[in-house]
Amino acid sequence: MLLVGVADGSVDAENLDRRTQLLVRAHPHLYLIRLLDFVPVISGGNNDDPAWAQWTDKSRQDAVIVEFKKPLGPAGDKTSPVAFLIVKSMLLTGFDAPMEQVLYLDRFIQDAELLQAIARVNRTALGKEAGLLVDYFGVGAHLQKALKAYAPEDAEDSIGALASIRDEIPKLRDRHARVAAIFAQAGIDRFDSDEDVEACVQVLADEQLRARFDVALKQFLTTLDVVMPHPEGLPYVKDAKRFARIQITARRRYRDSGLGDFDPSLYGAKVRALIDEHVTALDIARKIPPVSITDPEFLARVRGLTSDKAKASEMEHALRFHIRRNFDEDPARYRKLSERLDQILEALSGNWDQLALALEELLGEATSDDSALRVHVDPLVSRFYGLFEAEFADSTELPDETRVDLIDLSENIVAEVERHAHRVNFWHNPHAQDELRSRLIHMLDDRDLFDFAVQGSVADKLLELARANQALLAERRS
């Protein structure tokens, strides 16, 4: 029942005693733990017990070393349960196993032998963050002497050669404080409830502050991964989960370009496991609305947020993202939506319930079929007309005859664009695009609707609008 409670979020693993926490976290790996094999690799002697042959025979040693170099897993062609090789002086030189990550020392060792031993775990490998030395005997004190004798250039920087996890504890404390300080400046010192998370997400509306938070969080979580499972790192686990949840929520809310939710590649396996466990338990993927307002479930999920302020904020930034992503395809329509959004935000600022209702109505406009509002049955003609209409935005109401002339011009330009864009690799051919631009300028000049001085810039906008609508143009060819 305890494991079920941890899995569904009804039991917080951080509130359990440390031994139980360890057992709970180990349970998902119980099958692999039971498989783990410890194999001695030792030199033989004339008076050895015959049973030792499995550990002293050269061919058997070679075979077990091959198994050790495979990824952990059941015995097979690609995986092996051999996790530990137990040696005294063997395999300290000429042993090439970059994935070897931990060296346990329980005897006196110094000078060249010490450097050779450390070198076994100081190789880089995919997925390996660092080599770890667990020093039961206290040989670390001999490192400086060995470095001075054999590698004096490294002796001045012992941290670069060997750093104690205990030295990371003050860094962890400081880096946690830096993350917390971002929210403390806004009077937030708790991160437990949905309301606390929402308050933090509101603070991160500022893009520069959000970038600062991302940097500080990466430093904190990277250090935590180094320290864990050292007991002094455990008090920071709760906030690590909470800060990651805040980051996920903020990234989805503000649609940060090029960023995912929680980027596991930035952190070590221990932190990744913690965050994955927390995200799964809270079902964050379901509770936080998806990016696109066109998702059928978007409004239902927005309505499930904790407050009108959260709903309004989610819809505002979802609309801004939608407008930004689609603007180039139909500048006229999305410019109007953007202006309408700004008007609503200004008029209803601080009135969260009314703002949420107004933004929900605007969401409907943004996602509805706009065919009834088009000036032409052909959506491309309407988009080019919208561009022309925007060029007269500072003018008084357009006369009917001018509108008719602009619609006719839009039809002709769409036909001209289609004729040119049908050419193979047109959008990768600057010369062909220059030909189309020249034709557009001639067509503008023939209508006498635009001054000669602006015809070039209008033609450039028409060409960019055509480029943004390549997919629509391609559909018309098929």
Descriptive account of the structure:
By secondary structure, this protein is mostly helical. It has 4 domains: 2-164, Rossmann fold (3-Layer(aba) Sandwich); 167-287; 298-368, no CATH class; 379-477. It is 59% helix and 4% strand. The chain has helices at residues 2-8, 18-26, 30-35, 53-56, 58-68, 111-119, 143-150, 152-155, 158-161, 168-184, 194-203, 207-227, 237-254, 269-282, 284-287, 298-303, 308-326, 331-347, 352-367, 379-391, 400-421, 430-447, 452-468, 470-477, and strands spanning 37-40, 82-86, 102-105, 132-135. The strands form 2 sheets. Strands 1-2 form a two-stranded parallel ribbon. Helix 21 packs antiparallel against helix 22 (430-447) and helix 22 crosses helix 23 (452-468). It starts with a helix and ends with a helix.
Please specify the SSE layout and strand pairing:
Layout: H1 2-8, H2 18-26, H3 30-35, E1 37-40, H4 53-56, H5 58-68, E2 82-86, E3 102-105, H6 111-119, E4 132-135, H7 143-150, H8 152-155, H9 158-161, H10 168-184, H11 194-203, H12 207-227, H13 237-254, H14 269-282, H15 284-287, H16 298-303, H17 308-326, H18 331-347, H19 352-367, H20 379-391, H21 400-421, H22 430-447, H23 452-468, H24 470-477
Parallel strand pairs: 1-2, 3-4
Helix pairs in contact: 6-7, 10-12, 11-13, 12-13, 13-14, 17-18, 17-19, 18-19, 20-21, 20-23, 21-22, 22-23
